[in-house]
Amino acid sequence: MKNPIKKLFDDSAHLFTGDGKYKKYEPVWDATKTFFFLPSPKTGVMPFIRDSLDLKRYMSFVILALLPVTLFGIYNTGFQSGRAAGEAYSILKCFMVGAWYVLPMIIVSYGVGFIWEFIFAVFRRHKISEGFLVTGLLFPLTLPPTIPLWQVALGISFGVVIGKEVFGGTGRNILNPALTARAFVFFSYPVSMSGDIWIAGKTMVDGITGATALSVTGFEGQAIGSALSEAGYPLSSLFYGLIPGSVGETSALCCLIGAAILMVTRIANYRIIIGGITGVIATSILIWLIPGGTETWANAGPLYHLFAGGFLFGISFMATDPVSAPGTNPGRWIFGFLIGFLTVVIRVANPAFMEGAMLAILFMNVFAPLLDHLVIKYKTSKRIPNV
Amino acid sequence: MEKLKISRGFTPKLTGKPDMSLIRLPFPSTIGCSAGDIPFIRPKLLVKEGQSVKTGTPLFTDKRDTSIQYVSPATGKVKKILFGERRRLLEVIIEPDTQDEFIQFDPISEATLAQMEKADLVDRLKQGGLWQGLRQFPAKDTAEPDHTPAMIIVSLNGNDIFSPHPAVVLKENMDAFLTGLALLRRFSHRLVITAREDCLDDLQNLSPDMGGLITHVTDTAYPAWNPGAVLYQLKETQAENSSWCISLAHLVMMGQFLMTGHYPVDKIITATRGEYNRPHILIRQGAPVNTLTAPAAPGGMVTTGRFNGRILDPVTHLGFFENTLNIIDGAPEDEMFGFVRPGLGKPTVSATFLSSLFKKPAQMDCTLHGEPRACINCSYCERICPNDLLPSFIMKALHADEIEEALELGLLDCCQCGLCAYTCPSKIELAKILADGMDSHYKDSQYKD
User: Fold this and answer.
1) A residues 316-335 near B, CB within 8 Å?
2) Structure pTM?
3) Which residues, at least 6 apart from A9, have a Cβ–Cβ distance to it below 8 Å?
4) By three-state DSSP, how is residue B38 classified?
5) What average pLDDT score do residues B420-428 get?
């Protein structure tokens, strides 16, 4: 018997294709159809057999890798909210409260972003790209749970339109669209993005700081390590992630799980991730060796730099966006390393923006073509010329 | 014996490896001389429908060099001349007689071979319809007789993974092979004879001399034995870019031709399908496809190679350069939620399917497994390219008409193995784009003088 869903698409095909009544909306119909049924047209030219991986599955794996971060983010939002309210919520309640804050952000991000995707697909007559499924989830995960939803809508609009579609859509953008969206919100509505509102909860209780780990510094000669512990950010909390912060970034562990999924399945290029972590470790050790400044992040050492803030989230999910990263392997090593380097430098040297990862990645996105250019120049100089 | 290892490439785990036995199929009712598999040719017909031809009579020639002839593989009447779009010659079909009548030349012994003028040898091969077996890099067009190649690459293994096994081809033809090698030595000082590692034992069992003859053993990863990949591994100077190559089948044919003085008409092919291990087939040159193999199921196709070659219409005939037939079946229907299935039986280069955990050979179908999308710079094509190219960058250069940049990136080193398009998750026809870019550059460069 024929699959009833298949039948529905087959029966409605004449409305959306060719001269159909709803020809304009073909991209939506097509996107829905290909979601249910993997299209498998016959190969027309050599090679006649093809690998089973397609872009839909490719992007699905990024979503899969984001699941631990997302679920933990929802839980942690509820947990922090409980702490702010001075209560210890049960696991279920943590998820419920967290979902109350986080799900609307994800829904708004997907909904508004999808509308833009759709508008461009209709006018440009291209297919709706699976890449948006990743952008639409990445963006809310980089935001604090208390952000007003209209800012989420505005941010994702900026990210999709200016970050991607004006360049011609998927595959042609120079910046990571989700980070472009975040940068827009970050610079346009700094009040929502920093300060004491990282915790999703209306009432603040004494003894719990609302600031993130990166804004902590020691004072009166207190070393940064002990200042962080005192503020409720010992290394273990930073690693497991039960701390205030953007939805997806707090748990280093979950980010590392995601990174491992991406590297093992070869969806992300391991060179970027390993290069980035190396960059952070090398740079933070180097800066740590400089005497003085024990109370600032200059003296935090590699582990604090790795596990605090959004670095691991950024390097695993944002920097590995293949479109805006370099396309050559040596380029990827340098790209990753410099993201790590810049993240630490910005954290140490720039008191205005505590979080360096976002700026470092966007900055290196811009330089990715240059890295490729240099690598290719070198590679072609080694080649025996044919002409 | 030197070992050649390609840096990347790919070892496909496919079912259907032909076994080592050989069967002879009966004489077919029609014989064709195909023009479809000959690259760059501008054919000019020399016969008319209804005309009688002998085995070895020229049927058509190449307008670019009319001394290069494509000859009849059978004696009989020209039954039909088949044209494609814009009257492009597809094939000349002959209704064969029961008895063969050959165009006869004087046999040449190995001793005379060494003394003959090079130009005479070339003439003889051209008249015999065999010169075109020698191909010249980078475009693999017919070799220029005046050119002295830095090396001639003889690949004992064919273009496909399951091309005829060299030991089966050489079993009866050792003498012809040696004569062929003596002939090649007249054209170049350096012969590179390559065999795939997994064929080496069978070859050495065949003749203990093989060990001395084979200069290089290649990896078993596809396409390490492709002459283009071999050349890329070996070349050290720019002069070597215009080396020649020849397949084992054509070398044996040349040897047979010199020894007997008439056009050799037998050919060993493999016809593979799915999981069946079939024997090698000995047939007449130019046999019709439908006598060699059952038709493909609806949605499937018959091709002359999995990774490169052409799609064959079952009513047409096998070409001069082709000795592999593949029947590739299509997928029964679009899979529901295909993109999230675990995929135990889905072969992949990536590690996104469970199949990558097991090394079981898989049966592949001729569907795209997805839809064309924009290039996302994932570098799967680079990861698999045997000749260290950056196919996606070359593709972008070609799309921007930056032919110089494409050449600088090594476009002409492409050996057209098809792996880049095989692996592309965005389903971009990289192999076709690169091949077209290379061909159009080659055609342009022919007009320079």
Assistant:
1) 322-323, 325, 327-329
2) 0.90
3) A29, A32, A33, A36, A37
4) coil
5) 93
